[in-house]
């Protein structure tokens, strides 16, 4: 039976995040001929409708308003609730991002529905939507089916491939005004101060060069940043490196840091503690560079290089420069 699917699009700095397109691909899979609607919030929302149409939305609901330019739980919650009541979907998808993780449990609780969070795959099997999600810090995967009622899920970035942009597709665009009383907003974002430098967003990066305590200092991250620049990737870190003060905690990957699934993860001077593996072991290709041949990181690595990262990383950078020139 066809389903009406609603995608809560994720916007950062006025631009759609790739996970929104991944959610649309998942939505098309499960809609089975039904309607796929995307909702986008904020004063620049109207300008974002076109790419959503190109990536599979049949309809885009635009909720304008400057108070929706920066995420706040209260404002987004009210806007999304109104959209859900208007669209009356069978399925709702959003990214398992900072925004998705914050707003979705609140919406689910208020709508009195369940929430399947952090899904790495979604399939339609015998008319049922089947979700795959990691358990035990990524050591095992479980498949889940919601037996009845509205289905609500957050999808982990970089796991479900987005469909190619089809510029011949376009979506019907509808504007919906949501009254959000100023006194209902308990927080007001006045300024956003970035902790990390400009560059590729770690949680959506296709390539991550990660450093551990083995980088030995803040300067030790420089060769990693150079390699990341050449590969168009982002720099990440273990908690060991963050605790040692070599980098900001915003870079931490792992159980208590970010969970990432890039195409390529290069771990440099990282021992491979279970808490670190929880955040990166689902990466598609893992390369480990470590002086210790017994380091646990080699148990999850597809390619292992036993050596000093300060010798190996610059060599890789030079070789990639030649290949990609
Ligand atoms: P180390 O374990 O000290 O490893 C450094 C590695 O670098 C060694 O293997 C060494 O052989 C290698 N090395 C040294 N010099 C060089 C060189 N020149 N070239 C190549 N290799 C070199 N950790 C996380 O990463 N993320 C988390 O989210 C996280 N959450 C945690 C939550 C809890 C509740 C707890 C208890 C721990 C958590 N940890 C987390 C910490 C985790 O247990 C480890 O302590 C941490 O991951 C170790 O970091 P590391 O691998 O950089 O350092």
TrEMBL record:
The molecular function GO annotations come to:
electron transfer activity; flavin adenine dinucleotide binding
Top-down, what is the taxonomic lineage of the species of origin? Bacteria, Bacillati, Bacillota, Bacilli, Bacillales
Xref: InterPro entries: DHS-like_NAD/FAD-binding_dom, ETF_a/b_N, ETF_a/FixB, ETF_alpha_N, ETF_asu_C, ETF_asu_C_CS, Rossmann-like_a/b/a_fold
List ligand-binding residues for FAD: 213, 238-239, 252-256, 269-276, 290
The cofactor binding remark recorded in the entry reads:
Binds 1 FAD per dimer.
Q: What is one Gene Ontology biological process annotated in the Swiss-Prot or TrEMBL record? A: fatty acid beta-oxidation using acyl-CoA dehydrogenase
Cofactor(s) the record lists: FAD
What is this protein's name? Answer: Electron transfer flavoprotein subunit alpha
Coiled-coil annotation reads: none
Q: Which SUPFAM superfamilies match?
A: Adenine nucleotide alpha hydrolases-like, DHS-like NAD/FAD-binding domain
Residues that span the membrane, as ranges: none
Keyword Flavoprotein assigned: yes
Q: Which PANTHER family match?
A: ELECTRON TRANSFER FLAVOPROTEIN ALPHA (PTHR43153), ELECTRON TRANSFER FLAVOPROTEIN SUBUNIT ALPHA, MITOCHONDRIAL (PTHR43153:SF1)
Q: Which UniProt keywords apply?
A: Electron transport, FAD, Flavoprotein, Transport
Q: Does the keyword Transcription apply?
A: no
PROSITE patterns hit by this protein: ETF_ALPHA (PS00696)
- Biological source species: Marinithermofilum abyssi
Electron transfer flavoprotein alpha/beta-subunit N-terminal domain segment(s) = 5-192
Q: Which family does it belong to?
A: Belongs to the ETF alpha-subunit/FixB family.
């Amino acid at each position: 039976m066809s389903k009406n699917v609603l995608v809560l699009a994720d916007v950062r700095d006025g631009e759609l995040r790739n996970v929104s397109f991944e959610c649309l691909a998942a939505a098309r899979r499960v809609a089975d001929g039904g309607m796929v609607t995307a909702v986008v919030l904020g004063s620049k929302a109207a300008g974002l409708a076109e790419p959503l149409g190109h990536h599979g939305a049949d309809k885009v609901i635009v909720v304008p308003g400057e108070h929706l330019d920066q995420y706040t739980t209260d404002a987004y919650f009210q806007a999304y609730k109104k959209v859900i009541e208007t669209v009356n979907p069978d399925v709702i998808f959003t990214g398992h991002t900072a925004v998705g993780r914050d707003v979705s449990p609140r919406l689910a609780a208020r709508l009195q529905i369940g929430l399947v969070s952090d899904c790495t795959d979604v399939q339609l099997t015998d008319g049922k939507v089947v979700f795959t999600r990691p358990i035990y810090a990524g050591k095992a995967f479980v498949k889940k089916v919601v037996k009845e009622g509205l289905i609500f899920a957050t999808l982990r970035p970089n796991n479900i491939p987005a469909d190619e942009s089809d510029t011949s597709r376009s979506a019907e665009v509808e504007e919906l005004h949501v009254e959000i009383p100023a006194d209902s907003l308990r927080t007001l974002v006045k300024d956003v101060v970035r902790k990390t430098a400009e560059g590729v967003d770690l949680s959506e990066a296709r390539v991550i060069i990660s450093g551990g305590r083995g980088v030995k200092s803040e300067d030790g991250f420089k060769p990693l940043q150079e390699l990341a620049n050449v590969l168009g990737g982002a720099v990440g870190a273990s908690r060991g490196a963050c605790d040692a003060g070599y980098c900001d905690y915003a870079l931490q990957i792992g159980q208590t840091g970010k969970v990432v699934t890039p195409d390529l993860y290069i771990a440099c001077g990282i021992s491979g503690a279970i808490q670190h593996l929880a955040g990166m072991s689902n990466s598609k290709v893992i390369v480990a560079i470590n002086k210790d041949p017994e380091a646990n990181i080699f148990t999850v690595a597809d390619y292992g290089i036993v050596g000093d990262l300060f010798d190996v990383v610059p060599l890789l950078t030079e070789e990639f420069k030649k290949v990609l020139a």
